[in-house]
Design goal:
Elements: H1 3-33, H2 35-41, H3 44-70, H4 73-92, H5 96-124
Helix pairs in contact: 1-2, 1-3, 1-5, 3-4, 3-5, 4-5
């Protein structure tokens, strides 16, 4: 896989993590302001499960390719922790108080991991 493809995967993973954070921050206000929106968007659990299906593979591939080259333990640790928290949040289901906090925490960890991976790959000129 080329450096460009790996960098693209990091950008996609960062974007998906950001989308998840925006969803967690905006959905409660949107549901309060626009009750019809909640019927159109579907369940919160479904959204998180679908997003997880996209986030996990793109994150695993992007982080694995980068870590294989630059062997940065922090990238691997942040990424693994973020994915684990995200999976646990989805597995626990809709526990209002914890789900949002866990998802936002996982998103922050994932963004830090992918941003660091992206910077290290650019610095090292990775050719994966």
């Amino acid at each position: 896989m080329t450096q460009k493809a790996s960098a693209s995967l990091d950008r996609i993973a960062i974007g998906l993590s950001g989308l998840c954070a925006i969803h967690c921050a905006v959905t409660p206000m949107a549901v309060i302001l626009f009750p019809v929106l909640s019927a159109c968007v579907g369940s919160d659990e479904l959204f998180h499960a679908l997003l997880l299906v996209l986030v996990v593979p793109s994150s695993v591939v992007a982080l694995a390719l980068g870590c294989r080259r630059h062997r940065d333990v922090r990238v691997l640790g942040l990424g693994t922790a973020g994915l684990a928290v995200l999976v646990v949040a989805v597995a626990l289901g809709h526990v209002e108080y914890w789900e949002r906090r866990m998802t936002l925490g996982a998103t922050a960890l994932m963004v830090m991991a992918h941003a660091r991976n992206y910077r290290l790959c650019r610095r090292d000129g990775c050719e994966h």
